[in-house]
Each structure stands twice: as structure tokens, then as C-alpha cells.
Automatic annotation (TrEMBL):
Formyl transferase N-terminal domain ranges (all copies): 124-193
SUPFAM superfamilies xref list: Formyltransferase
InterPro entries, per the entry: Formyl_transf_N, Formyl_transf_N_sf
Designated name of the protein: Formyl transferase N-terminal domain-containing protein
Amino acid sequence: MFTVMTEAFFHTSFLHEKLRDFQLNWIIRNFRKLDKSTLDNLHHELSRKDKITDDDLIKLEEAYKGLNESERYLAKTHGVPATHALSSANMVDTGNFGESFYQHYLSTEYSKNNEGTLIFLNVILAPFWIDHFDKKIVNAHSAILPYARGMFAIEQLAIHGNKESVERAAGATIHYVDTGIDTGPIIEQKRLPSPWVLDSIWAVKGESQLTAFGLLKSYLERDNKFQFTDTIPIEQGIESPLFVSKTFTNEVKRNAETSFIKMKEA
């Protein structure tokens, strides 16, 4: 059985929706200590609605203890999935993926299923996880690699005001994980057809996330999963910027919003 490692955010409910029909183990970083029953009830209620209102967004924000701009876009545009990251029966809930939790995880039945794992995370996995899964870890990145690596990549790239670089990087990538940050061998990429038909950089981010989830689903449907024979070549000599979360301040967010609109209007 394969494993999914992700986090308890609203946007990862779309990942669960994509993968819910597969037999998987889930390891969920629930550092906000979200309440499963509250999310169950809210997702059940809102998934039946054709249109999500501002009042509904307030309910989601309270239940998830915060929503970011791309999550608001996803709810307004794509609605609310019936399930969420904490919905799975085969699920381990943790506050972090550190050494203490790892030792606990080794004592569970889930740890015996180390054939491979899919990840979508805002944190970097420690080397012991890579060793545990014998390097059979496939990460989904909500931008095209290697053009924009790291955290909040497409948003921070937009600040530079280069339309070509945004077009080149808007989309998603799945790749094998190594000890670097988004540097492992690439398996598949899918670009957004045109980011400029979208209203905001947050819409670009949201659609890139959905594209990443779709790539993970397609990967699970392959016959040659986690065999390291399914990688593709990439263009050599590319300058590959690395963005980190601590640089993504509120000022940077505003600059990303403004810069995207200027490029769109141009």
C-alpha cells in the first residue's frame, strides 16, 4: 500500500478528493489541531452548495483557523469537496514530521507500508523519511520546475514582472525527492494554458495546485510507479531561483498581486 503525506489545509481537501478512491495510508501534519468532526460537518454542508458565499468563507476560515488567498479562490471557483485531508480511515494525525513522531510512527502498522509515498507539503522532509521509503518519494510542486523552486514560488516569481517567466513557470511538476529543495529528477510537468485568463496571481496558484493534484492521481494510475525509470530530461543551464517562506512577507504578497495585474493588463 502506498502512502500520502500532506497537511490539514483547505486546499489539500482537493487532493483528498482526487485520491479518495485509491487504497492509501495518509500521514497528515495537523499543526493547527483542526477538529475532524467540525470539518466533516462543514464539508458535508458546503459540498452540496452550487455557489460558495462570503458567509461560507467565514465558516471555512473559522474551521480551518485561516484561509489564504488561493484557498478563497478555490472555494469560490471550484466549491468545497465533500471530504478533507483528515477524512481517511487509514490516517495518522501529527503536529509535525520530526524525529519524535517518526519513532512513534515506526511502532504503528502503517510504517510497514513503505512501498512509496506521495507528498504535498509546506515543510522539508528530514533525511530519515527519505531513507524509510528507500527514496521512493514523489513530490508535487505547484509550479514548473526548475523555473521556480521552493515555497510560494509562482507568487514570488511574479514580482519580477517578467511575463515570459510567469508563463514558463505557471503549472505543476511531480518529481522524485532528494536532499535538495525541488531538485530531484522530474517525472512529469503540466503547464497552465494561459495564466493571463485568470484574474489574480492567487487564481494562478490555485489552478497550479489543482494541476499538481491531478498529476499525482495520474501517477498512481501508472504501472511503473516508484521505479526511477520514468523521469524526463530537462533543459540544461537554466537559472533556477529558490524562494523560501520567510521572504514571503505581506509586502511581498501585495507586490505579487500588483505585478501580476500590471502584466495581465499589458
